[in-house]
Structures are given as structure tokens and as C-alpha cells.
Amino acid sequence: MSGNPSGMTSGVSGSGFSTTNTGDKPADPVKAKNLDTEASVKDKVEDLGKFVEACKSGMMTTRQDKTGLLVSRCMALAARENGIDLIFFTNTESGKTDELLHDPKVNIAFLNSSAEWASISGEASIDTDRETVKKYYSRALKAWISDLGDGVHDGGPNDPRIGAIKVNAITAIYALSKQTAIGRGVEIAKGVVTGEAPDVQKLREITQEELQAYKKLSGA
């Protein structure tokens, strides 16, 4: 987990990699203590949506076709639909569109200065419909697309190079702070002295089934 050295992830019960047996005690007590199992699906999705919008930008990870290696790029969030389905603008002639054509699976990661974070996994599609582009277009795009001076490729909403990457969210995991920075510091310091897992974050997981149910109830 970002912000602590344990590297806590969502994990899977009975995962294939293990170096020991802790019996009836949790092998990852930090996750066990911070995992929020009380929040409703509605709260989990809507709180994540608010966090994502507050971050404004996230790291989009795609897979390179030729090497199979992963690559991440910072992307500004253009819009959010159906809870946490995300929309980003792109230059259609860039490498990421080729990567998405070969493998639409993506991850979008968000992090703020308080070490709160989110990881959203899903599948991306590229939408070049002008109505979609115009709906979410921002004048700031012109600086990133550039005007080629030919009257067509001008960085405006009708520039054919501008497309929207739509990420259909499938699963997500995120962590929000429970306490102030001072409170977190006290909890971590106590953990260093006593070995007790610090209770500092609300760790929430959203499954594919939960997202599907949320979208269905919200009319998506």
C-alpha cells in the first residue's frame, strides 16, 4: 500500500504465493484492520468517484504490443460516467491508441498528497465520434494536440486527431484516510513501538459484481 512499507494490495484469499503459515492469525494484519466491510456499494462507488475527480489526473497503464511490457502515462480526467467509468482525451495518432487496439485492458491509478490512492481496472475503447468529443472538449486540449496550420488539424473539437478513451471500470480498490496527518503519524509510531497494525485508512474493494449491480440500479 502506498504510504506504508508493507506493499498491501487487494490480495486474494488462498493466493498461490506464500512463504509461511500464520495459522489463525491474519498474515497481513494491516489489511485486515483497515479493510472496510461496512460501506454500501453505493457509498463505495460514489466516494471513489469523488476522490477520482478531486485528483483530476491519473496514471493510465497499457501493454505494449511488441514487447508485452507495461507502460504508464499521466492522463487528465475529462469526465466520469456511470459512477466510475472514466473518459480521457487522446491524440489518436499516439502510441497508446495502438496499444489499446491490441489489448484494451487498462489500469488507472490515482494518488494524492495525503497518500490516499485508488486503482481502477477495466477495458478501454476509443471513441472518435465528434459529438462525444464536443460534449467533453476543453480549450486546454489545443495546447496538447497543437495546431498544424492546415485548417483541419487545429486542435479544435473537429480535429480528427482528437478522440476519447472510455474506460469501462470492472473492479477497483482504494484507500481513504481515516485520520489527520498527525493522527496517522501517532498510529504509525505506535505500531513501530508495539508491533500493532496501524488503523489509518478505509481500504475498500469494489468487485465486478458490485459495479454491475450499481450500474444497473443507476440506469447505466
Write the layout of secondary structure elements.
Layout: H1 29-34, H2 41-55, E1 57-63, E2 70-81, E3 85-91, H3 95-102, E4 105-111, E5 117-127, H4 130-136, H5 141-145, E6 162-177, H6 181-194, E7 201-206, H7 208-217
Antiparallel strand pairs: 1-2, 1-4, 2-3, 3-6, 4-5, 5-6, 6-7
Offer a quick outline of the entry:
The protein is built from seven helices and seven strands, in the order ααβββαββααβαβα. The chain has helices at 29-34, 41-55, 95-102, 130-136, 141-145, 181-194, 208-217, and strands at residues 57-63, 70-81, 85-91, 105-111, 117-127, 162-177, 201-206. Strands 1-2-3-6-5-4 form a six-stranded antiparallel β-barrel, surrounded by four helices.
Tell me about this structure.
The chain is α+β, with helices and mostly antiparallel strands and 220 residues long. Helix content is 30%, strand content 30%. It has seven helices and seven strands. The chain has helices at 29-34, 41-55, 95-102, 130-136, 141-145, 181-194, 208-217; strands spanning 57-63, 70-81, 85-91, 105-111, 117-127, 162-177, 201-206. It has a six-stranded antiparallel barrel, surrounded by four helices. A hairpin with a 3-residue loop joins strand 2 and strand 3. The longest helix is centred in the first third of the chain and has 15 residues, at 41-55. It is elongated, with a radius of gyration of 20 Å.
In quaternary terms, these chains amount to: single chain
- Spatial order of the strands in the main sheet? 1-2-3-6-5-4
Order of helices and strands: HHEEEHEEHHEHEH
Residue windows where pLDDT falls under 50 for at least 5 positions: 4-13
Q: What is the end-to-end distance? A: 31 Å
Structural class by SSE content: alpha+beta
Query: Into which percentage range does the β-strand content fall?
Result: 25-35%
* Gross geometry: elongated
What count of helical segments does DSSP give?
7
Main sheet makeup: 6 strands, antiparallel, barrel
Q: Taking all residues together, what is the mean pLDDT?
A: 87
Helical fraction: 25-40%
| Rg on CA atoms, Å | 20 Å
Instruction: Please provide the count of β strands.
Output: 7
